[in-house]
Amino acid sequence: MKRKPTHPGTVFFEDVLKPLNLSITEAAGMLGISRKALSEFVHEKVSLSPEMAIRISRATGTSVESWMNMQQKLTIWEAEQNIVNNVIMFPGLSMDSTMAL
């Protein structure tokens, strides 16, 4: 089992807000969102939305895709932790043949 990917809210808090010495309230104002919305994101209560990724990307000069990729990795990891074991591979397919999909 691979390690759980870091939530993008934690990355935003640790790598952006802390080094810039910005409070959640200050950053929320600069992002044009409520303090509550940003607090829930940095405290991992909610996932990163595309809208929030756009706001963060514009405020930090980073790509929207980099932020969304962090969320996607976390979302897939969480789904894999809950997958049921009763899925059977379709006949005639192998793991090698599915790689082309």
Automatic annotation (TrEMBL):
Q: Which UniProt keywords apply?
A: DNA-binding
Tell whether Magnesium is among the UniProt keywords. Answer: no
GO MF, one annotated term:
DNA binding
Which species expresses this protein natively? Oribacterium parvum ACB1
**The UniProt record lists the keyword DNA-binding:** yes
Please give the superkingdom of this protein's source: Bacteria
The family database entries (Pfam families) matched by this protein are listed as: HTH_3 (PF01381)
Indicate the segments forming the HTH cro/C1-type domain, all copies: 20-67
What NCBIfam families does its record include?
Answer: antidote_HigA
Q: What is this protein called?
A: HigA family addiction module antidote protein
SUPFAM superfamilies recorded for this chain? lambda repressor-like DNA-binding domains (SSF47413)
